[in-house]
Write a structure and sequence with these properties.
9 helices, 2 domains, Aminopeptidase
Length: 259
């Protein structure tokens, strides 16, 4: 585990978490209903943020595990880290936050998270953190416009007053108002090719028996051509090679920084 054990994880306010996520998450955006933010500190500075909150499509998500109360699950909806943290930092931080949630919020029985195989990766960190794979489907959640803007379809449909939608309308020279998804597609929006993968972690292991959908073997990712690493479609073997190479580069960089 190395220096990852030296990372201090603690709850931080949104005014600190949000700017960091915007600066370091691949999307450059935050999830508006994030309500619980953890900061990862090393050598006295913030180097990572993990944000949790209720799922945007909560009624559908609750049905994944039978008997889940309204406040019985959370979504890990943002993880953002800079390049300073050492190898294994992501899985270490996830484990720490899950233990803190188990202790401070015992009503939360499980956590769901989604890997964006259209823009980022297929969930290597979730698999390393003992999450269960429960869904692989074509990603119909992100629309890209001729302006280059990428916005979640749910945001376009349900949160038309968001600044990102306003800015998109200004760039496209169209009226800023509510539109259906099909209307946005007529304006040039296109789905980003790729897959979305759904992972669940059972804070209370007994609740795993209540899962209402099949557990999917990780081998299915390659069978469906859903493997992704940093926005590039690759096989599992290639992912391991790329991940190890990236981790080795980051480790050497950290060694240089710490001299």
């Amino acid at each position: 585990m190395g220096r990852a054990k030296e990372i201090i994880v603690k709850v931080i306010p949104s005014k600190i978490a949000i700017p960091f996520v915007k600066a370091h998450h691949y999307s450059g955006k935050v999830v508006n209903n994030s309500s619980l933010h953890f900061g990862a500190f090393l050598d006295g500075k913030l180097h990572g943020v993990l944000s949790y909150g209720p799922s945007m499509d909560k009624r559908k998500v609750l049905g994944l595990v039978e008997g889940t109360e309204w406040d019985g699950c959370l979504e890990l909806n943002r993880m953002a880290f800079d390049d300073y943290l050492p190898k294994n930092s992501e899985s270490f931080c996830i484990a720490k936050t899950l233990r803190m949630i188990r202790k401070q919020a015992p009503q939360v029985k499980w956590v769901v998270s989604f890997a964006d195989g259209a823009q980022c990766g297929d969930g290597t960190i979730y698999r390393a953190s003992n999450f269960v794979l429960t869904g692989i489907k074509p990603n119909k959640t992100i629309l890209e416009f001729p302006t280059g803007d990428r916005i979640a379809a749910m945001t376009l449909e349900n949160n038309a007053h968001q600044p990102a939608v306003r800015d998109l309308c200004m760039k496209m020279g169209v009226e800023w108002k509510y539109r259906t998804r099909s209307e946005w597609i007529k304006l040039g929006g296109k789905y980003i090719p790729g897959f979305q993968l759904r992972y669940i972690y059972f804070i209370d292991p007994k609740w795993r028996k209540r899962l209402t959908v099949p557990e999917i073997p990780f081998s299915k990712i390659d069978e469906m051509g859903a493997g992704m690493y940093k926005g590039e479609n690759v096989t599992q073997e290639s992912r391991h090679v790329k991940c190890e190479a990236q981790l080795e580069r980051e480790a050497k960089k950290n060694e240089t920084n710490n001299v």
